[in-house]
């Protein structure tokens, strides 16, 4: 299953319960369909780059609060493995959810090499090469003074650390 990263901006509320509900329903959808949530990162409340209309969705009736404007939002990221039909269902639910202002889903990779070579931190200035331009794991290991086996061992350690991240994520959900 491919590894995806969801970056979401939700409407800001004085309590965290709507945000908790959004995160729990999204992660439950992923796990109920055979996926695994690897990491949750709550960035907190931030000012939006521009004011956004809140609460207006396709097919909605002419309610009184449809033209409300928001200038702040709650940001979070979710890293998860899932199959494409589950991703499509998650995307359609987020699109219809009135508490979601904006979201995007990025495919990190579907093979061990792609995932191991992906940037791990926000703001990391590193060029990621794909296709023919990407160096194989063996040449990466040789450049770091190791051999091909150590490069594969490093990739395996990265995958094992993702299991630890999933356990840490569960603790973060309990704190929310």
UniProtKB/TrEMBL annotation:
<comment type="similarity">
    <text>Belongs to the bacterial ribosomal protein bS6 family.</text>
</comment>
<dbReference type="InterPro" id="IPR000529">
    <property type="entry name" value="Ribosomal_bS6"/>
</dbReference>
<dbReference type="InterPro" id="IPR014717">
    <property type="entry name" value="Transl_elong_EF1B/ribsomal_bS6"/>
</dbReference>
<dbReference type="InterPro" id="IPR035980">
    <property type="entry name" value="Ribosomal_bS6_sf"/>
</dbReference>
<dbReference type="GO" id="GO:0005763">
    <property type="term" value="C:mitochondrial small ribosomal subunit"/>
</dbReference>
<dbReference type="GO" id="GO:0006412">
    <property type="term" value="P:translation"/>
</dbReference>
<dbReference type="GO" id="GO:0070181">
    <property type="term" value="F:small ribosomal subunit rRNA binding"/>
</dbReference>
<dbReference type="Pfam" id="PF01250">
    <property type="entry name" value="Ribosomal_S6"/>
</dbReference>
<protein>
    <recommendedName>
        <fullName>Ribosomal protein S6</fullName>
    </recommendedName>
</protein>
<dbReference type="GO" id="GO:0003735">
    <property type="term" value="F:structural constituent of ribosome"/>
</dbReference>
